[in-house]
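pls read this protein.

:::
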Amino acid sequence: MSGSLPQLEGGLFLTDGGIETVLIFHEGVDLPLFAAFDLLKDEAGTERLRSYYIPYLELARERELGFILESPTWRASRRWAAELGYSEAELDAMNHKAIALLAKLRDEYQGAAPVVISGCVGPHDDGYDPAELLSPGAAQRYHATQIRSFAQTPADMVTAITMTSSDEALGVARAAGEAGIPAVISFTVETDGRLPSGERLGEAIERVDTSTDPAPAYFMVNCAHPTHFDSVLDAAGRWCERIRGVRPNASTCSHAELDEAEDLDAGDPDDLGLRCAALREALPRLNIVGGCCGTDHRHVARMRDFMLESAV
């Protein structure tokens, strides 16, 4: 099922940066509940989202690299949508509309290198400090609604971004398998390299890998600075070979510190790019880079350049 994903064949792929923090801090957009999908409710918001993706697509086009278009739907699941006043039918329409926007961008930018469309799935609870950790069964039931929506669109895959526990990741992977669409799992970690649930990164990856059929296409790490997890990577561990992507935060601050911050910490794009390239020593299959909180196209540009230099 996942064999058709071109990023599995190697070659460097880019994706976007921290969409919510770019829109809020750089563009002054009000995003209730961090919900970028809410912009799809009118033409002006849809055009703003389209414009957001263009600089990243251009970075890939400049070097003839693959690109993964991640939909702006991190909050487009039942709990968050209900808090924003969306009915289930309206939410389904929004998830379809998000993929339709990306399909138009793919038509425009598809060239020598492939452009992949991913339906973004976010956590049921807070991605920094979850108050409730779902069981695998509850997570499967919860995420199945959004994943079924994506399976009815041109999306090539779904990516669960900022997963805080292996239980919720298991639920996502099983829901994707049931819907017949490839899944990617991206875990977040605290400054000690452990998931917010307290699990070790390697243990979480191995648990999801061995407990789902089909297993996820690959794994990623996001919403954490490389200094938070580089020390826990084991180059000899098979689980490291399952990590193909990183989407780091710009800041070295902890999740708790970022929650309290009033200003954006954009970090150092050069240092971030170097650190991402250095991760290849422990992650031999790393070929997908993008950003998370605090990052923008400048950070992704430096990741691209240092990754290409390290491959020479």
User: Anything to note?
Assistant: Residues 11-311 form a domain with the TIM Barrel fold (CATH 3.20.20.330).
